[in-house]
Design brief:
Layout: E1 2-7, E2 11-13, E3 18-23, E4 33-39, E5 46-52, E6 58-60, E7 68-73, E8 78-83, E9 92-99, E10 114-116, E11 119-124
Parallel strand pairs: 1-10, 2-11
Antiparallel strand pairs: 1-3, 3-8, 4-5, 4-9, 5-6, 7-8, 9-10, 9-11
Length: 125
């Protein structure tokens, strides 16, 4: 069940930048953290990064940490995935998620309790 709302995905060229948005409609952010994942057809969902909604500290996957960042605007109840220098291998459906308990770390998709509907990012060479 989709409980978070996402936007921002589109087709871009190699080297472009893009910002994805995630919000919880009609409510304040409901959990401790916001995570971002991406998925390519036929592959497992891949952790991109996460942010502690209250404190603002983040963690990013090694594959994107030099190009991507995560932020949130608590007043607007919106989280963001900032993507720079996009490459064709970044093409995927990107999902945001919310969760509060992470005994195996932020990169554990099973720990998240709410998910967005996904938004497609296509990077062309």
């Amino acid at each position: 069940q989709v409980q978070l709302r996402q936007s921002g995905g589109q087709s871009v060229q190699t080297g472009d930048s893009l910002r994805l948005f995630c919000t919880a409609p009609g409510r304040t952010w409901p959990h401790y953290a916001m995570g971002w994942f991406r998925q390519v057809p036929g592959k497992d969902r891949e952790f991109v990064g996460a942010i502690n909604w209250g404190a603002g500290n983040t963690g990013l996957a090694d594959s994107v940490k030099d190009r991507f960042s995560i932020s949130r605007n608590r007043a607007e109840n919106t989280g963001y995935l900032h993507m720079n220098n996009l490459q064709p291998e970044d093409t995927a459906v990107y999902y945001c998620a919310a969760g509060s308990g992470f005994p195996r770390g932020w990169n554990d998709a099973d720990a998240y309790r709410m998910w967005g509907q996904g938004t497609l990012v296509t990077v062309s060479s």
